[in-house]
Amino acid sequence: MEIHEVDETEEKTESQILESQTGRIDDLLKEKLERAFHKQTSKIRLHDIAKIACEHSPIDLAYGASHLPPNVRPVLYENLPNREAKIKFLVNTDSDTRLALFRQLDDIELKKIFERVPIDEAVWLVEDMPERRFRRLMELIDSKRASRIRELKKHDRKSAGRLMTSEFFAFTMDMTIGEAAAYIRDNPRIDFTKGIFILNHSGELQGYVPARNMMINSPNTPLRQVMRPVLHKVTPDATREEVIDIVERYKISSLPVVNIDNDLVGVIAHEDVVEAMEDMADETIARMAGTNEKFTSHDSVLRRFLTRAPWLLVTLLAGLLNVGVMSSFQKHEGGILTFALFFVPLITGMSGNIGLQCSTVLIRIMAMGGLSVGSRKETIIKELLSGLFTGAIFGICSGLIVYLFDWMSGGALGSSTPFVVSTVVSIGLIGSCFAGTFLGVFSPLFFARIGVDPAISAGPIVTAFNDFLSMTIYFVIAWGVSSLFY
User: Fold this and answer.
1) Fold entry, domain 169-288
2) What superfamily does domain 28-158 belong to in CATH?
3) What is the chain's pLDDT, residue by residue, as a tens digit (486 residues)?
4) Per-domain residue ranges of the chain
5) Per residue, what are the HEC states of the chain?
């Protein structure tokens, strides 16, 4: 009896480990929200919505809102307890929910929101707003704040200028710790953790002061005596990848952004870099899967189909090309068609997986900034040799297996000489695997050279082309080898 109870406890613990805490919260919220909104009667229980909005974090509600129909999401927003909660909800929810809210909220409500939301987050919010509504909103809010939002909005979405915030603490070198601390206390809305930077009288960046130095030194100590040099900084037009590479390599909590005159124009916090990494990971996974879709549970099947269809059309056309390659060798039926066709799935599967492994490894190295000009040649050679070695090992093993099978079964594959079958499979697999490796190595470099995300090289375009190339090489090798014996 005791053993049975222990087993149940262990099973329960494993189940809890498999299901994350945030996952359980999302499931609970989804169930509550679906009960509050009756799909059959199309009625909303406002008192239940208000209770849910008070009981749960606005961040959790922001994620849970994506499971609701778009016309119901503004109701959830309106029942949030205060404006701070509404700001958190807007910042953390998805683009579709923000679009639905912006259609419902009037200009006065938006003015109150954008007067309190941080500048860098306000720029991300207005991306989901129609241009006419954006211009009208900028005329309503404080002119200084509106100017900052417009300035940040000019930068490319994937640049350091878009990641940075224009709200930070910066003091001159002659100020004392006490004077700086008083200013920090008078401006509690500015995030203290983004760093304290030191400028000269011309506004040029000179250094930064760690928070610890502000605490352990006398209030009368000048900031110039406790500041440290800034070793890493970027310009507003630096790419998102450059920012991530610097922050991750040097483990810095905030990265200053300067213009060509070394004037401090913004600061990129570590949490902004983490969000950029998450966005990059989502985009990379989507491209590697051959889709750029961003949909919710309420999007129609037709929309999902239209998003995926262009990529899959490439695979369809490549498949038709493969049929053309196979049919073109039909005239050699006595030589290769009797047995070569049996091994086409083996050839395309092996070469495709080897090519995918090579491209994925190379894309990861490129994304982490590990592929420099000096190491590029060495990396390419190692990957090509690795693919050739892998193809040789599996090619020889496959040839031996086919030989033994054909010999033991008395020519079950239709060839009078088991050696012919095994040789065709072995050499064909080696050639197709090397072709897959070649494509997997050079396609990311090619796409990066022409300014396209290298992750697309692992998608259906190159996968389909790899099938066509590897199968063509296989049939050419099979025809060449078999012509020596027939």
Assistant:
1) CBS-domain (3.10.580)
2) MgtE N-terminal domain-like (1.25.60.10)
3) 334 444 444 444 444 443 467 777 777 777 777 777 765 444 566 677 778 888 888 888 888 887 777 778 888 888 888 888 898 899 888 888 888 888 888 889 899 899 888 888 888 888 888 888 899 999 999 888 898 888 888 888 888 988 898 888 999 998 999 999 999 889 887 877 778 999 998 889 999 998 888 888 899 999 999 999 999 999 999 988 889 889 888 888 889 999 999 999 999 988 888 888 877 766 666 665 555 555 555 556 676 676 666 667 777 777 777 777 777 666 555 555 556 677 778 888 888 888 878 877 777 777 666 677 777 888 888 888 888 888 889 888 888 887 787 667 665 555 556 677 778 888 888 888 888 888 888 888 887 777 766 666 566 667 777 788 888 888 787 777 767 766
4) 28-158, 169-288, 301-483
5) CHHHHHHHHHHHHHHHHHCCHHHHHHHHHHHHHHHHEECCCCEECHHHHHHHHHHCCHHHHHHHHHHCCCCCHHHHHHCCCCHHHHHHHHHHCCHHHHHHHHHHCCHHHHHHHHCCCCHHHHHHHHCCCCHHHHHHHHHHCCHHHHHHHHHHHCCCCCEHHHHCECCCEEEECCCEHHHHHHHHHHCCCCCHHHCEEEECCCCEEEEEECHHHHHHCCCCCEHHHHCECCCCCECCCCEHHHHHHHHHHHCCCEEEEECCCCEEEEEEEHHHHHHHHHHHHHHHHHHHCCCCCCCCCCCCHHHHHHHHHHHHHHHHHHHHHHHHHHHHCHHHHHHHHHHHHHHHHHHHHHHHHHHHHHHHHHHHHHHCCCCCHHHHHHHHHHHHHHHHHHHHHHHHHHHHHHHHHHHHCCCCCCCCCHHHHHHHHHHHHHHHHHHHHHHHHHHHHHHHHCCCCHHHHHCHHHHHHHHHHHHHHHHHHHHHHHHCCC
Assigned CATH class of 301-483: mainly alpha
